[in-house]
Amino acid sequence: MRRDASSLERTRPFGFRRVLPVYVRRVPTPPFTPDPADPRYLYEQLADYIAEQIAAGELRPGDRLPAEREFGDVYGVSLGTGRRAVEILRERGLVVTKPITGTFVAKR
């Protein structure tokens, strides 16, 4: 049986199934400006900054944080600083990281 290109039904090789994209709300984040007089590490300042956004309601439960590699573009920090800040937020229970999907603000 021959199918034309306009057919809605297509077979996938080797039983692969189509994965639908997950749509999440991307939140524009205000710029992060570290305080040079603050004796804390930069990743601690960034973690506290994001925690303040969560407490103020700017980041709601289920909102997605930028990917670790995007932290440099969004917050102006290095990859390692972004990773450590997310780790601190995860320890505090403010965010949840799901493999492949990303990091999201935890539901309370």
Describe it:
The chain is 31% helix and 7% strand. It has 108 residues and is mainly alpha-helical. It has a domain at 40-108: Winged helix-like DNA-binding domain superfamily/Winged helix DNA-binding domain (Arc Repressor Mutant, subunit A), CATH 1.10.10. A two-stranded antiparallel ribbon has the order 1-2. Strand 1 (95-98) and strand 2 (102-105) form a beta hairpin. Helix 1 (42-56) crosses helix 3. The longest helix is centred in the middle third of the chain and has 15 residues, at 42-56. The protein is globular, with a radius of gyration of 19 Å.
Overall morphology: globular
**CATH architecture designation of the domain at 40-108:** Orthogonal Bundle
Radius of gyration: 19 Å
Class by SSE composition: mainly alpha
State the helix count.
Answer: 3
Share of helical residues: 25-40%
Q: Distance N terminus to C terminus?
A: 54 Å
CATH third-level topology of the domain at 40-108: Arc Repressor Mutant, subunit A
Encode the helix/strand succession as letters: HHHEE
CATH superfamily of the domain at 40-108: Winged helix-like DNA-binding domain superfamily/Winged helix DNA-binding domain
Number of strands: 2
Main sheet: which strands, in order across?
1-2
Q: What is the CATH level 1 assignment of the domain at 40-108?
A: Mainly Alpha
Low confidence ranges: none
Work out the strand percent: 5-15%
- Average predicted confidence as pLDDT: 81
Largest sheet: 2 strands, antiparallel
Oligomer: single chain
